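> forwarded from #structure-qc
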């Protein structure tokens, strides 16, 4: 009888040990996968929303459902440089930027609406840099004067929240959907800031 109890205790202990090992391996695989499918923010172009060194999870599995104001990882320019930006213009939208006392007024007329023009709110405060040219040229880049332009089918118009220090669609033009890797709505690092990334952007009526 005592021998049977020892055998049962040993079996339970072994099962618990295997369960702990499997749980540990799954946790390790989760961490490795999260790091593998993540991007580290470089530069100041998305302050104050995310900052240099923040590590963000790339939700590549829902890249086909890009919405206005999503944070995304995109590859831009001839070198396909990875960047973190915010989606402002969707395919078919009409977009433009004018400046009011040095601050940008980013205007959007959603696709299918001929007259309902809105401005992107908020205009983030405390911006740095000198990216203050009006927009846009036909390819979505900044130009020498205010001009409205329509976002082509299959492409997106991306901006950095820190508009004064951001190389974005004003530099690289419209970004094909195929060059957008996925959504970025979860901060992995630093651990003290782990969690969902707030999205304060909205469309507001023209002042």
């Amino acid at each position: 009888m005592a021998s049977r109890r020892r055998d049962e205790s040993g079996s339970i202990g072994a099962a618990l040990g295997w369960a702990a090992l499997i749980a540990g391996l799954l946790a390790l695989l989760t961490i490795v996968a999260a790091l593998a499918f993540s991007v580290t923010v470089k530069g100041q172009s998305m302050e104050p929303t995310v900052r240099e060194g923040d590590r963000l999870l790339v939700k590549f599995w829902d890249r086909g459902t890009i919405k206005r104001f999503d944070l995304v990882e995109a590859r831009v320019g001839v070198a396909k440089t990875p960047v973190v930006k915010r989606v402002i213009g969707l395919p078919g939208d009409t977009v433009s930027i004018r400046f009011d006392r040095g601050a940008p007024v980013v205007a959007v007329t959603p696709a299918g609406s001929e007259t309902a023009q809105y401005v992107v709110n908020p205009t983030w405060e405390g911006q740095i840099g000198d990216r203050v040219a009006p927009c846009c040229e036909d390819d979505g880049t900044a130009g020498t004067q205010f001009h409205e332009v329509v976002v082509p089918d299959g492409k997106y118009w991306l901006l950095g929240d820190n508009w004064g220090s951001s190389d974005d669609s004003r530099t690289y033009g419209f970004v094909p959907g195929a060059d957008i890797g996925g959504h970025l709505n979860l901060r992995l690092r630093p651990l003290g800031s782990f969690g969902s990334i707030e999205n304060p952007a909205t469309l507001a009526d023209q002042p």
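QC bot note: Residues 1-36 form one domain. Helices lie at 2-36, 169-172.
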